[in-house]
Amino acid sequence: MQHDTLQQWLDWLEHQHPKLIDLGLERVSAVAERLGLISPTATVVTVAGTNGKGSFVHSLGALLKASGQRAGLFTSPHLLAFNERILVDGQQASDNTIMLAFDAIFQASQQLDISLSYFEYSTLAAFYVFNQDNLDFWVLEVGLGGRLDAVNILTPDYAVITSIGLDHMEYLGDTREKIAFEKCGILREQTPFICLEPDAPDVLSAAFSSHHSLVIERDFEVVESSDTVTLTDRIRQCQIVVPQTGLSPASVSGALMLATHWLDIELGDDTAISAALASHQLAARFQRFAVDGIEVVADVAHNPQSAELLHQRLSQLPLKDGAKRIAVFTMLNDKDMNAVIDCLKDDFKAWFTAELDNPRARLASDVANAIHNRGIHMISVSKNLRQAFARARSLCQPDDQIVIFGSFFVVAELLPKLLPYAKLPSIE
């Protein structure tokens, strides 16, 4: 198919498949087989979990790069540009490189008379790009669940499960046990894996005994302070300066465990490890900006588990006397909006919501009603997020704080307005 720009390809991908989310391995496996992508020579690390997947992928990527290993990283979704999803040696794949991958996938799928979703194209594009290079590692973030996700067509050499929370319940089930079962689908017989979920459901706990595993609070302990994380296991104790980059301490610790126990790569001392991690920025994970005397926080919290983490971080960042905190917020239809609001309802003086230009978005009026039903009366509804943000700023005085959250799509729309401003330190 002839498309002259990457954006033209992406516009076509958004509408060419009958389902936005189409779980299952048969179609995508067939196309991968045709392209010779099903058995990479590189070491494959597959990462599943409700939250923390991207943080783990980037933490491990930083460590691999610092040790001289060549790695391809695949994550989703993106914030500002599709190229963010596909990194080789820490660099985003170029438009032309991705377009060549898309064209190859299109030709193969046409030959097989197979239709693929946007995410399936994205996944195979990453595999295709990585396969063109002589990489040591492929580090892959599962998109949704695990068992039936396109990433799972590959057999991982190592697997990681970062967390188990309630999200995507219409696809994965309505309990943590059911969701854990889907995420455990990335495990193969005897696949070594790391678990960063301290409250593991039974199906996940059962995998500990049948696989070579490293489990948080069983095999290693993570202790956080204001600017460091101390990791203790049976071999060593290390104290890492937490980088101001959005990487979570649990993900950093899990990546260190994988690197030092199983990958056998040389990382140097604690100072060298801290420097390596500081080189990777993960945007919109409690990312703070100073905007004309007002602090603005951008965070992609979009489910109850990540909302609880956002609440904890806000509690660590008390406002000055008389200052107020304002939410700019909306969510997608398939997210547990009521649980998210319940978690954060006491953190904000006022809520600004708006229509979001996304087919999965909730109506702003529905969001406002959900907020109002919790006894909150300072609510503003705007026609779009830019207007909502402008109205929130107009209500602010110096030392006030605006928090933008609810979806990757919410943050993606407003992040370009924030990037020109000075960044403030993280509180990880």
From TrEMBL:
Known role: Functions in two distinct reactions of the de novo folate biosynthetic pathway. Catalyzes the addition of a glutamate residue to dihydropteroate (7,8-dihydropteroate or H2Pte) to form dihydrofolate (7,8-dihydrofolate monoglutamate or H2Pte-Glu). Also catalyzes successive additions of L-glutamate to tetrahydrofolate or 10-formyltetrahydrofolate or 5,10-methylenetetrahydrofolate, leading to folylpolyglutamate derivatives.
Residues in Mur ligase central domain copies: 47-191
UniProt keyword annotation of Magnesium present: yes
EC number: 6.3.2.12, 6.3.2.17
Keywords from the UniProt entry: ATP-binding, Folate biosynthesis, Ligase, Magnesium, Metal-binding, Nucleotide-binding
Protein encoded by which gene: folC
InterPro entries: Folylpolyglutamate_synth, Mur-like_cat_sf, Mur_ligase_C, Mur_ligase_C_dom_sf, Mur_ligase_cen
Enzyme class, broadest EC rank: ligase
Name of this protein: Dihydrofolate synthase/folylpolyglutamate synthase
Residue span(s) of domain Mur ligase C-terminal: 285-408
NCBIfam families, per the entry: folC
Database matches in Pfam families: Mur_ligase_C, Mur_ligase_M
Keyword NAD belongs to the record: no
Pathway given in the UniProt record: Cofactor biosynthesis; tetrahydrofolate biosynthesis; 7,8-dihydrofolate from 2-amino-4-hydroxy-6-hydroxymethyl-7,8-dihydropteridine diphosphate and 4-aminobenzoate: step 2/2; Cofactor biosynthesis; tetrahydrofolylpolyglutamate biosynthesis
GO molecular function, one term: dihydrofolate synthase activity
A single BP term in Gene Ontology: tetrahydrofolate biosynthetic process
Catalytic activity, reaction form: 10-formyltetrahydrofolyl-(gamma-L-Glu)(n) + L-glutamate + ATP = 10-formyltetrahydrofolyl-(gamma-L-Glu)(n+1) + ADP + phosphate + H(+); (6S)-5,6,7,8-tetrahydrofolyl-(gamma-L-Glu)(n) + L-glutamate + ATP = (6S)-5,6,7,8-tetrahydrofolyl-(gamma-L-Glu)(n+1) + ADP + phosphate + H(+); 7,8-dihydropteroate + L-glutamate + ATP = 7,8-dihydrofolate + ADP + phosphate + H(+); (6R)-5,10-methylenetetrahydrofolyl-(gamma-L-Glu)(n) + L-glutamate + ATP = (6R)-5,10-methylenetetrahydrofolyl-(gamma-L-Glu)(n+1) + ADP + phosphate + H(+)
Homology family: Belongs to the folylpolyglutamate synthase family.
GO cellular component annotations of the record: cytoplasm
